[in-house]
Amino acid sequence: MNLGKNSAASVTSNNFPTGNSRSRKELLIWIVPALAVLIAIGLAVQAVLMRGPEITIQFPTAEGLEVNKTKIKYKDVEIGMATSIALSDDQRSVKVTVAMAKQAESLLVKDSRFWIVRPRIGAGGISGLSTMLSGAFISIDPGSSHEPYHNFIGLDTPPLIVSGMSGRQFLLTADDLGSLDIGAPVYYRRIPVGRVVGYAMHPDGKAVSVRIFVDAPFDRFVTTASRFWHASGIDVSLDSEGVKMDIQSLVSLAVGGVAFTNSSDAKDVAMEEALAESEFPLFNDRTDALKVPDTLVQKFVLIFDESVRGLTVGSPVDFRGLPAGEVSRIDLDVRSAGADVTMAVEISLYPDRLASRQRDQSAQTQSSSSLRQIIDSMVVNGLRAQLRTANLLTGQRYVALDFFPKAKATQMNWAQTIPQLPTQAGSLDSLQDQLQSVVEAMHKTLEHTDKLVVNIDKNVIPELSATLIDARSTLNQAERVLASDSPTQLQLRDTLREVGRAATAVRDLADLLERHPQALITGRK
Questions:
Q1: In this predicted structure, what is the pLDDT of residue 241?
Q2: All structural domains of the chain with their residue ranges
Q3: CB 93 within 8 A of CB 58
Q4: Would you say 327 and 346 are in contact if contact means Cβ atoms under 8 Å apart?
Q5: DSSP label at 361?
C-alpha cells in the first residue's frame, strides 16, 4: 500500500505542474518583451543623447541639395543631415534645416561659415569634382567665437582661407585693380605661393586695397623690403640688348596675378619678416617696383614759346639719357592781358639722381645741402630744358636737360615759390624754322624768276623774233643755193670735174718726171 501511494504521488508530481513552476514560466515569457522595451528605451535615450542641435542655413539657391540626402561634412566626416528645404520668408533665398550631431555642437558658433561644395571653375582652378558622383554637400569652417549660434547665412562661394591653414595675410594698395580677381595666384620667383582673397575700394575712391594670403612656409619671404607688382599679361621692353618679353605663367595671362621679390637695393635695411596685415604698394610692373624710391622732390617750372603737343603729364624728364624726373603739370601762361601766351610746364626733379653720391654722406643729405649750388653751376654752364620727340610715329615728346654753350646767359631765381628753369627752343621747331626760311627764300627766288621771264617776254623776245626771221630767210636762200637742181650746184659740179681732170694730168706729169727726169729737157718721146 505504501508503495502504491508513493507511486501515485510520484506520478502526480511528474505529470501535473505545481503553482510555483507555472509562475516561473510566465515570468520567463514576459522577460523577453521587457528586455526589448528596455533596449528600445535605451536606444531612444541614446539617440536623444547623441542628437545635436537643429540649425538653419540660408543659401541663394538650393541647387544640388536634397532632403535626407545632403550631408554636412567637416574634414570629410559626416556631422549632420539636411532635414528640410523651404523658401525664406522674403522668398529671396532658401532656408535649409539641418539636424546636427552631438559632437558638432562645439562647432556651431557665431562666426562659423557654411557653403555648398559642388563642381566650380574659378581663377584658382577647378574644385569640387568629387561631388559629380557623390552629390553636393555642405561644408563648415568653424569660427573662433565662443558664442553659440543656430541661424547662419551661407556663403555664395567657398572661402579661400579656412581655419587651420598656415600662412599670413597682407594688404596691397594700388591705383586700380587691373585684371586681378579673387583666387588669382601670388608668385615668388615664378612659384605660386598664395592667392588673392579679396579686394575693396578706399572710402575716398582714390585707390584699391587688395588682400592676399601667402601660404607657409613661403610667407617668411615677405619682408619689410618686399616689392609687389601686377604679374598680369605680357611685359615687353626694348633696350640695347634687344626685345625682352616677360610673363609669369599662362594662368596669370588669363586671370591676372601678383608677384613679389625683395629689393636688392635695401642692403642697409634689416631684412625682417613682415608682420601679418602689413601694407605694401602694388606697382604696375616689375620695372616700377624695383626702382629706387625718390625721397626728395624739387619742383621747377619751364616756360616754352612753342607747342607742347605730344607732351603729357607723366612724360619723362631726361638728363643725357638718365631719367631725372617727370612732367607733373601743363598749363597756359598768359602775360600782359593775353598779348603773349606761352606754355608753362611743371616738372618734378629728383635731385638724388643728379647729385654725386659720397660714401660718407647720404644722398638725401647731400642733395638737400648742395642742390642749389649744383643747379646754379649747371645753368651758368648752359644747362637748359628742351622739348624733344621721343617717337616719330606716335609724336610723343619729353623734356630733355642738356648743355647749350651758346645759350643766352641767365641765372636761377630761388626766391620764387617754384623756381623757373631756363629753356631752349626745341630741335624740331628749329628745324621747322629753318625749313620755313628755305621755303621763303625759294618763294623769293621764284618771284625773281617770274619777273625775269616777264622781262624776257617784253624786251628780249621781240628782238630775238626779228633775228630769227632774218636767220630763217638766210637759211631759205642757202637751201635754194644748195638744192641739187640749182644752177649753182650744176656749175659747181662741172668745176669740180674740171678740177678733177686737172689733178689727173698733174699726177700723170709727176709720174713721168719721176720715171724720166730728162723729159724736162728732151721732151716726151
A1: 45
A2: 49-153, 167-289, 298-425
A3: yes
A4: yes
A5: S
As a whole number of angstroms, the distance between CA 484 and CA 366 comes to 106
Query: Of the candidates 141, 137, 187, 182, which has an alpha carbon nearest to the alpha carbon of residue 164?
Result: 141
Closest CA to 402 of 370, 435, 379: 379
Task: Region of 167 please: left (phi>0), alpha (psi -120 to 50) or beta.
Answer: left
Most confident of 12-21, 75-84, 156-165: 75-84
Q: Percent of the chain having pLDDT more than 70? A: 74
Alpha helices in 259-394 (DSSP H): 286-289, 351-354, 363-380
At 476-507, the pLDDT tens digits run 777 776 666 777 777 777 787 887 888 888 78
- H/E run at residue 102: none
Residue 497 is which amino acid? Answer: R
Banded pLDDT at 22 (limits 50, 70, 90): low
User: How far apart, in whole angstroms, are the C-alpha atoms of residue 172 and residue 161?
Assistant: 17
CB 290 within 8 A of CB 259: no
Please give, one letter per residue, the 3-state secondary structure of 48-83: HHHEEEEEEEEECCCCCCCCCCCEEEECCEEEEEEE
SS3 301: strand
Q: List the beta strands (DSSP E) in 163-297.
A: 167-174, 185-188, 191-201, 208-215, 226-230, 235-239, 242-246, 258-262, 279-283
Report pLDDT for 134. Answer: 73
Gap between the Cα atoms of 96 and 193, Å rounded: 36
> What is the band of 16 on the pLDDT scale with cuts at 50, 70, 90?
very low
- CB contact set of 322 (below 8 Å; sequence gap of 6+): 353, 354
pLDDT of residue 83: 92
What distance in Å separates the CA atoms of residue 420 and residue 384, rounded to the nearest whole number?
Answer: 11
Which of 382, 386, 379 lies closest to 404 in space, CA to CA? 382
Specify the higher pLDDT residue, 252 or 28.
28
Cell numbers for 22: 507555472
Q: 95 Cβ partners below 8 Å, 6+ apart?
A: 56, 57, 58, 85, 86, 87, 88
Predicted pLDDT of residue 211: 93
Distance CA 351, CA 181 (A): 39
Burial class (CB in 10 A: 0-12, 13-18, 19+), 195: buried
DSSP for 307-328, written as a single string: --TT--TT-EEEETTEEEEEEE
- What is the gyration radius of the CA atoms in the chain, in angstroms? 55
Please choose, from the candidates 400, 377, 372, the residue with its C-alpha nearest in 3D space to the C-alpha of residue 387: 400
Residue range 56-73: mean pLDDT, rounded: 90
